Amino acid sequence: MADKLSAPAENAVIEADAVRNFFGMKLNDIKKYYAKFDDADSDKDGLLSKDDFLRGLGIVDQSPQWGRIFDLLDDDGDGFINFRVYLIGMAFANTNLDNETVLRTVHKIFDSDDDGYLSVEEFTAILHKACPTGVYTPAVVAEIFEKADTDKDGKLTVEEFIKYASENPKLAAEFQLWRRNFSVESNDTKEANTPAKEEKKI
Questions:
Q1: So what's the pLDDT on residue 119?
Q2: Type and span of the H or E element at 80
Q3: Residue 48: in which H helix or E strand, if any?
Q4: CA separation for the pair 84, 97 (Å, rounded)
Q5: What SS3 class is residue 45?
Q6: Residue spans of the chain under pLDDT 50
Q7: Which member of 8, 135, 148, 186 lies 3.0 to 4.6 Å from 164 by CB, making a disulfide possible if both were Cys?
Q8: Distance from CA of residue 81 to its chain's centroid?
Q9: Is 183 buried (19+), middle (13-18) or exposed (0-12) by CB count in 10 A?
Q10: EF-hand domain: which residues (predicted)?
Q11: Which pLDDT value is given to residue 3?
């Protein structure tokens, strides 16, 4: 999808620099992640499908728990992620973050067109990822969005998003849980699939 900002080559450098500044990642780590991303990108369009993503991790088991990691990153549910989202996800899983940074990261991940704001649709995607039980009906989402959108311009800045989430502990806790689930599953995936990665190199 075009609004995913497909990012091979030069675009990836720009996006990686922004993520590096945001998380304080080391350049060597970013290079390693890009090499893995590029290797997994089967058609070199700057986007990874779920199959690409799992293959890049050395995963041949297609059971649901492996695909959940991808689903957590696929902000708009179109079945693809670009390098920006991939890199944010890797940093999100492997970096110690305080509550405000977690919220900033959630905003950044789900800002699918990277315009610095969350639309109603993007905000809805966040709530459904954080709590996929159906509690956030369209009416509930609309009510929350209206309260969070303090300047009433129909979109949420990162400051509006952080302020609302911080003032609503239940919602902030759901984002923290979402982050912990992602981190645990990502680390379990890497540990469980180390032999598969080594076998692939032989």
A1: 96
A2: strand 80-82
A3: strand 47-49
A4: 18
A5: coil
A6: 1-8, 184, 188-202
A7: 148
A8: 9
A9: middle
A10: 28-63, 65-96, 98-133, 136-171
A11: 44
